[in-house]
Design goal:
- By secondary structure, this protein is mainly alpha-helical.
- It is built from 3 helices and no strands.
- Helix 2 runs antiparallel to helix 3.
- The protein is elongated.
- It starts with a helix and ends with a helix.
């Protein structure tokens, strides 16, 4: 019960296996770290990494929104196919 709650429930809620969720979440985390480092460089030397922070945020937002929309569309298609059959 606790294992499921800690490791499986949330990935299932977003339509992923544990391994898929690990890949997506770690990719987002690494991207955020790199974007954050760019923002810190920009803080010290404003001429460097001028748009790194905002570009990173925009890229991640677009990716996450697109993934959710694709999963929703796949779910709708699956439900529609079940009704047709």
């Amino acid at each position: 019960m606790m294992f499921r709650k800690l490791f499986l429930d949330h990935p299932a809620e977003v339509g992923e296996s544990y391994i898929e969720h690990f890949g997506v979440a770690s990719g987002v985390g690494l991207t955020l770290i790199l974007g954050g480092l760019g923002a810190l460089v920009h803080a010290f030397v404003p001429r460097f990494c001028v748009t790194t922070g905002s570009d990173t945020i925009a890229k991640l937002h677009k990716k996450i929104v697109a993934q959710r929309a694709a999963k929703r569309a796949a779910g709708i298609e699956m439900k529609t196919a079940e009704w047709i059959i």
